[in-house]
Amino acid sequence: MDIKRLNDAVLCLHRAFNAREDNRVPYGLFGDYAITIQGASAIEGHSTDYKGYLECLAGSNKFRVALALDNGEDFHLRLDPADFREDCCDFVWSDNPNGQDEVRLRVWCDPIGEGWPKNGDMKIGRSNVEGHRGSGEVNFLDPVHLLKGRIRDAAMGFTHEHGADIYFLATVFDKYVRPRIGLLNLDFVGLALKNHPYLEPLFADLGLNMGEAKRRAEARGPNSVRDQPKDVWLNLVF
Length: 238
What we know:
By secondary structure, this protein is an alpha+beta fold. It has helices at 3-17, 31-37, 42-51, 62-69, 143-156, 160-172, 174-177, 186-195, 200-206, 210-220, 231-237, and strands at 27-30, 53-58, 75-77, 88-93, 103-108, 124-130, 135-141. The protein has eleven helices and seven strands. Mean pLDDT is 85; it is low at 40-50.
């Protein structure tokens, strides 16, 4: 699946989340697609190319997310929202009448009812994307929160792209990341090091406490990071 088709899907997502004055949904894209659009390595671009998978964080509960997206802008909920855990909804998008070349979307919803953070730590950037059907601006989580998400992924297991993306985000966006390293979760940093030990000099150069990160990782033990309800939201937001 080419990147322009994914861009078409996120442009529809942006329109759907902003279509109704009484149900606007704040959101930010993250994960493979978001990192690719920010200019990541060819390896990461390749991984997105075959996954055709989008992820975003939404500052509304799953009912409001489903209300905004289901049967709007060619999105369709994969199952009834009541069948899902409280913190995510899965959709498919296709503008083809027969549903071909569908794009999968997972929206991580607000499971605690507090909405989008107002403390200034959670920043949203806008980038212009070009699809087959047009172009426009869409919302992305800022580089620090893209990095937080990738470190959590790396803590769950070894995938080469995750290590490459962490290096990319931490170096290319150093001036944004370094002043805000306190937002990074040392538990996940330590667990990520178990799967990607070559990242230790990078983390140490950022000023992260390697001894404390390793101690926390040992205390948690292997295979301790899972997609439990609320975990993705809480890691990215707090």
